[in-house]
Write a structure and sequence with these properties.
- This protein is of the alpha+beta class.
- The protein has two domains: 107 residues, Immunoglobulin-like; 305 residues, Phosphatase 2c, domain 1, CATH 3.60.40.
- It is built from eight helices and 18 strands.
- It is elongated.
- This is Protein phosphatase 2C domain-containing protein.
- InterPro entries: PPM-type-like_dom_sf, PPM-type_phosphatase-like_dom.
């Protein structure tokens, strides 16, 4: 008996439908776990359909409240609120596009740890008021500078003041100076000590006659016609002026303490600064540091980095040195000053430990160029917040750097100050 052709056609269609239904059911039953998201942090999850080549995801339902979007098999965006979201994967089989199916999944969005910290404004009617955050952008020599200083979460949580400070000045005779300080959290007037330290050292170098003398001695050092002993003498002359500048800071703080019936220890603060000028033979950078805040110079081709100050870590770990300590003005003080000359550079950075601790962790990484490449990669937007600092189109660079400085780092909640010359 001859079987009609229509029978074979019906049988083939039945078999195809069986295969399609099986593949759709296998996709439905597959155990898919979306990685957890964190509120207010960028999230991305790519659906890997390699095991299901005939399945296509059309859309995902119930995304409206999540803050996420679905496109090209990718779920991405920045969720705003922590919650458990019940989503529906809407999919179809490529050989049965008219039949849409639903696969339910869950997305867990964890609370952003930043939200667990209060941000109580500091009392601006108190003694020695200070803004909770501030920024600056402008020129520095023939380059540019951006500086931000942001109150740490530990202070914000209790409504306390920012203890960090900075000052930037374009001086006469083509010199520029930037100074950064970190007031000791245990000192009750540290915020005022930090402010006075940066402003007094910058004021010292506003004297034109001092800058001219420094310039004269710099030229001797880098002029090949002078003998070694004359160059050594010129270097000592420069260090003498640098020494006088930090001595002036100490006396300024000592005077302020007396005027406000405080101990000078109540004004404990670290201090770093760079005084710089561009000469025809290169950039000369005079630097000083007391405390645990680094100054770093990165070469033009980003191949090497120099630490331009001594760091008070190691022996003094957990008890850093301050400019308010008279004992630092001893025979070892000269080692705190550096005279550096380079033909050019890409970045000159000064930071407090609120940046240094979470981003570099240990002192040795401050002189590791790969660590600095990671740091600038972070600044370029490779971070959880997707916060980007654009050094090329820099119209908003001060705002961008302030946003970046709000990064989360568990256990690191100190004030954060960062100055970058670029």
């Amino acid at each position: 008996m001859k079987i009609p052709k229509i029978y074979f056609g019906t049988q083939k269609k039945t078999m195809e439908k069986t295969v399609i239904d099986r593949e759709k059911e296998e996709f439905k039953e597959a155990h898919w776990v979306l990685k957890n998201a964190n509120s207010k942090q960028f999230y991305e999850f790519i659906f890997d359909l390699a095991m299901f080549p005939n399945i296509k995801i059309k859309s995902i339902g119930n995304l409206e409240e999540t803050g996420l979007v679905f496109e090209n098999n990718t779920l991405s965006g920045t969720p705003v609120t922590s919650n458990v979201y019940h989503l529906d994967i809407q999919f179809f089989h490529i050989h049965d596009e008219g039949s849409m199916e639903i696969k339910p999944i869950q997305l867990f969005v964890n609370a952003n740890p930043k939200d667990l910290w209060k941000n109580i404004p500091s009392a601006q009617d108190a003694e020695f008021p200070k803004q909770d955050e501030t920024s600056y952008k402008g020129n520095f020599l023939d380059k540019k500078i951006v500086v931000v200083s942001k109150r740490g979460r530990s202070h914000a949580h209790e409504g306390k003041f920012r203890d960090d400070d900075f000052a930037v000045n374009e001086l006469s005779s083509s010199w520029s100076i930037v100074s950064v300080s970190d007031g000791a959290g245990s000192a009750k007037a540290a915020r005022e000590g930090a402010r006075l330290a940066v402003n007094s050292v910058n004021m010292f170098f506003s004297a034109t006659d001092i800058l001219r003398e420094i310039e004269k001695n710099v030229r001797i050092i880098y002029d090949t016609e002078y003998p070694r002993d004359r160059k050594d003498e010129a270097g000592q002359n420069i260090v003498k002026y640098l020494y006088e500048s930090v001595t002036e800071v100490y006396y300024t703080l000592e005077k302020a303490a007396a005027e406000h019936s405080l101990s000078i220890n109540d004004l404990h603060t670290t201090l770093i600064f760079t005084l710089a000028r561009k000469f025809e033979f290169g950039y000369v950078i005079l630097s000083f540091g007391v405390g645990d805040c680094p100054i770093n110079l990165i070469s033009k081709d980003f191949s090497e980095v120099q630490l331009l100050n001594s760091m008070d870590v190691g022996e003094f770990s957990g008890g850093t040195r301050f400019i308010t300590m008279k004992e630092i003005f001893n025979d070892q003080m000269a080692s705190r000053f550096r005279i550096t000359c380079v033909e050019d550079f890409s970045f000159l950075s000064l930071m407090t430990d609120g940046i240094y601790d979470p981003k570099f962790v240990t002192e040795n990484k401050l002189e590791d160029i790969d660590s600095w490449k990671l740091f600038f990669n972070d600044l370029s937007g490779n971070n959880d917040d997707r916060a980007k600092v654009d050094f090329l189109s820099d119209a908003e660079i001060d705002k961008q750097l302030l946003t970046w400085a709000d990064f989360w780092s568990r256990g690191n909640h100190d004030d954060r100050t960062l100055a970058i010359i670029y």
